[in-house]
Specification:
The protein is α+β, with helices and mostly antiparallel strands. The chain has a domain of about 150 residues: Pnp Oxidase, Chain A (Roll). The protein has 5 helices and 11 strands; from the N terminus they run E-E-H-E-E-E-E-H-E-E-H-H-H-E-E-E. The strands form 2 sheets. Strands 3, 4, 5, 6, 7, 8, 9, 10 and 11 form a 9-stranded antiparallel beta sheet that branches. Strands 1-2 form a two-stranded antiparallel sheet. A hairpin with a 2-residue loop joins strand 10 and strand 11. Helix 4 crosses helix 5. It is globular, with a radius of gyration of 22 Å. Homodimer.
C-alpha cells in the first residue's frame, strides 16, 4: 500500500489500487417509480412521441434536454461516442452540426450509419435512434450558422476539432485574433463547418419500471409505415 501526505490539503491521498480509494459501485442502485409506458400511450409516428417526451424534458427543466450521445464507428470497427446537441427534427430526420474535419465527420464519411441516444435520466427515460446520415446543403448550413451567437460563430473558426494542441492558450489567442478580425463585420461560414441530417430507420423508447420491469417499445420503418414491437427489459 502506498500513500502520500499532501499538507496543503491536509489529507491522505491513496494510490488508485488501494481498497480505501475504491467506491463499491455494485450496490449503487435505485428503484424506478415515475410510471410506465403502455401501448395506449404510443403514437403512430415515433416523432410525435419523441416531441411529447422532449417537451416534458424541457418543462422539467432538465439540463441540456436536446443533448444526445452520438455514436460512430471507425474503419477498424472501433466505436466512438460524444455528446452533441440536436438542432432540428422533422419527418426528414434529425439534424446536428459539427466541424467537417472532426473525427466523427471522418468516420461518417466512411460509414454513414449512426446511433443517437437521448439520456433523460431524471425522467427515467431513454430514446435511441438508429439511421443513416447525409450532409446538409450549404444554404441550410449557412442559415443556421448565422443564427448562432457571434462568439459561437468565431469559435467555429478557431478549432480544428479533434486535432492535437499543446495548450489551451493557443485556442484563446486564436479566438481573440479572429474576434478582432471580424469585430465590425459578418463572420463568414467556414468551409470546414457543416451539418448532417439523420434519416431515421428505428426509434426505441425506454421508460424505467419498478423491479427492473422496464417498458421498451421499438418503432421500425417499413415500406408500409412504422411497425411497433414491445421489447423485453
Amino acid at each position: 500500500m502506498t500513500a502520500e501526505h499532501d499538507n496543503s490539503r491536509n489529507q491522505v491521498l491513496t494510490a488508485p489500487g488501494d481498497k480505501a480509494h475504491q467506491i463499491d459501485i455494485a450496490d449503487l442502485r435505485r428503484e424506478y417509480t415515475r410510471g410506465g409506458l403502455r401501448r395506449r400511450d404510443l403514437t403512430d409516428n415515433p416523432l410525435d412521441l419523441f416531441e411529447r417526451w422532449l417537451k416534458q424534458a424541457c418543462e422539467a427543466q432538465l439540463a441540456d434536454p436536446t443533448a444526445m450521445c452520438v455514436a460512430t464507428v471507425d474503419e477498424q470497427g472501433q466505436p466512438y461516442q460524444r455528446i452533441v446537441l440536436l438542432k432540428h427534427y422533422d419527418e426528414k430526420g434529425m439534424v446536428f452540426y459539427t466541424n467537417l474535419g472532426s473525427r466523427k465527420a471522418q468516420q461518417l464519411a466512411n460509414n454513414p450509419r449512426i446511433s443517437l441516444l437521448f439520456p433523460w435520466h431524471m425522467l427515467e427515460r431513454q430514446v435511441i435512434v438508429l439511421g443513416r446520415v447525409e450532409k446538409l446543403p450549404p444554404l441550410e448550413v449557412l442559415k443556421y450558422f448565422h443564427s448562432r451567437p457571434k462568439d459561437s460563430q468565431i469559435g467555429a473558426w478557431v478549432s480544428r476539432q479533434s486535432s492535437r494542441i499543446s495548450t489551451r492558450g493557443i485556442l484563446e489567442s486564436k479566438f481573440l485574433e479572429i474576434k478582432q478580425k471580424f469585430q465590425n463585420g459578418e463572420v463568414p461560414l467556414p468551409s470546414f463547418w457543416g451539418g448532417y441530417r439523420v434519416h431515421i430507420d428505428s426509434v426505441e423508447f425506454w421508460q424505467g419500471g419498478e423491479h427492473r420491469l422496464h417498458d421498451r417499445f421499438l418503432y421500425q420503418r417499413q415500406e408500409s409505415g412504422w411497425v411497433i414491437d414491445r421489447l423485453a427489459p
